Amino acid sequence: MTKYIPILIFCLSFQLFSQSQNELKATIIGSGSPKYNTERAGPSVLMSYKNTNILVDMGNGTQGNLDKLQVKSKDLDALLFTHHHLDHNEEFTPIFIKTLLAAGQFKVVGPRPTTDLVNSVLSNYEEDIAYRLSKKQRTFSDVANNFTVNELEGNQSFTIGDIEISCTPVNHTIATMAYRFDAGGKSIVISGDLSYSESLPALAKQADYLIIDSGGAIEEGKANNRTGKSKNRGNKEHAHVNLDESSRMANEAQVKNLVLTHLNFNNVDEVATSKALKENYSGSIFYAEDLMTFPKAENNTNTPTQITKKAKNSQAPNFEKMLKRLDTNKDGKIAITESKGKLKENFDKRDANKDGFITENEFGRGK
């Protein structure tokens, strides 16, 4: 009997892998914003189903996180843009060129000026591309037909591999598209950056997940500063939603799960932010982190409170990590001149003996 155990394990593993491959998934490649952050890569989401992989936006750090997942350029079937702000297309050039050199068929899709961007890359890096192709006795003519560019306007629907995609323009400071991905009976919507847009609830109607701009999310320690700032913004044009607007759109769309991404800081006050969202929206709420995958496992029975506590623990600052990042003179403590960001703001609260340094014992103070 024991000789069959390895075979049984292999069969079970293969079955689980097949189930994973046959489910539409969104992996948060980058959950950050234009602000450089060592803990959050710039905006990017990898949509996967069966053998189809679609990369939506390519912010700073996208390549590094794809590498952690062992996703290669040759694995990508399409590069999509929600819009062309730098934090969303910063790593397009190297990803596009590497995908082109991989010699597979792929698409580049997005709002204007997607076509101009692709042409600019091909022109500016013409010699570099030619050199790299020549190392394998190829020329640009060998790969010129391996990609297509589709510049989007208005509402459109199209298919890439096994995934059906719908898109709609949403309100932002430049031309911006939100996308809906449908496959295997599941639907996931990515809003891109936006202010309140009537088109988004229509696109996201009864979607399983809505991954949305986190505008208005509350940072830990700053909940009291946000009172009354979430609603009644009048007719002034805004680049990003607030919590009232994002929750109203999620409610209007009747989405099952809401995922906040494009976060400006590491430590989200999930209790305060969720409380504001729950004024309009009653579904499940998640706060994106790099390499987080949706849908979440259905056998996860954690309550929102338990999830919040786990998320807080996972995001809590670690003294050892802080030392590696900030302790430039390697003396085992952090000087006020070495501190940055929130640590610098709260330095006096943590520095118990007021000697101008924070030790490991003092690090837990002032959180």
From TrEMBL:
It holds the Pfam family Lactamase_B_2. It comes from the Bacteria. Residues 220-241, 347-367 are annotated as: Disordered. Signal peptide: none annotated. Residues 338-367 form the EF-hand domain. Coiled coil: none annotated. The keyword Hydrolase applies. Keywords: Hydrolase. Its EC number is 3.1.26.11. Transmembrane segments: none annotated. One of its GO terms (molecular function) is calcium ion binding. The keyword Hydrolase applies. This is Ribonuclease Z. It comes from Algibacter lectus.
